[in-house]
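Example 3.2
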Amino acid sequence: MNFLNKQFFYAILLFLFTGFLPVLPDQNQDKQVTIQKIPEDPATPSTELTKRPVGILFAGDTHFEWAIDDMQKKYSMYFPAENLKSMFDKSDFRILNLETTISEKTKPVNSKSYVFRAHPQQASLLNYLDINLAVIANNHTMDMGPEGLENTLRSLTERAIPAVGAGMDYKEARSPYYFTVRGVKFAVVSLSTIGAKELFTYGKNPGVLPLTNQIYRDIAAAKKSADHVIVSIHWGIEYSPRPDRNQIIIARRMIDFGATAVIGHHPHIPQAVEYYKHGVIAYSLGNFLFGSINHYQSTNFVIQLLFHPENSSLYGIEIYPITGDYKKTGHKVSPLTENDAEHFWKRFYTQCLELNPIKPEISIQKEGYGIWLKK
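Structure, written as tokens:
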């Protein structure tokens, strides 16, 4: 009696006495068993991609005043940002905080210390960088009043650049901007907490979208029509290296209501970045193109959000340090040199750890920028 026949005989006896029939081995089963790797949860990004991730680039405060104006007149419209052209070209979609009106003949409507107005020709730099969307919810969009806003929107439309965050009435300002990149659907919401009361829209009045509790409902509604909601918010204290407690609460609540990313600007210097739940928060990018000069200024950064090309989940971010200490480097914006980038990263790590005790796992590339994958 061979081994399997013996097993069958004992199994019948066991069944007759106990009622239990054991499972017998398959006679055709190979002796070697191949263990297959369990597929990863599609919502969990893999660190190895077969395709390049979808990249959404975001740059900070931009105007065309003072030193920027001087460079454009002396050299060319593109000169102030030509050193970053290749960085922008590598991205799938480019967003920028446009902190100026674009209006040729209008006059300031208030007595603010600083009012910003660009000639329409200066805005050709936006096309040079292939800007796909201008966020305009900030404290300078209404410097030239309703006429200035209307001219700005018209000028951007003529350049095939959509705008979000301000409008000729509340409904227009509140409307998210939707777009799709390589099959991934996005919605962008833009708002501001900075500015006098008359800056903000309500009812049929033109202006900038303010922060109210409605924004959380709008984020949740936009999420139903998009894979990801990106919130652009103009907020914070100028030249403060860290957000206040209220900003942290607001940003995290936006993530709770469905936003994937919250991108802040206005302080003119960079602040920390943190991953929170399924999303990421950059509290301040600092300046991008800004013609002023003072001893508070420091290096800034451009952020690129990376999305998985197959399951559309947030894959990580890229952080590109750029010049911003204009007293030392001048106003022509450039990627940081290796030595300056090292100083930036030391400060950035400290800022992030102050906000969140989990140490950032950032891979610094030889070109000076960093890749921070989402865990």
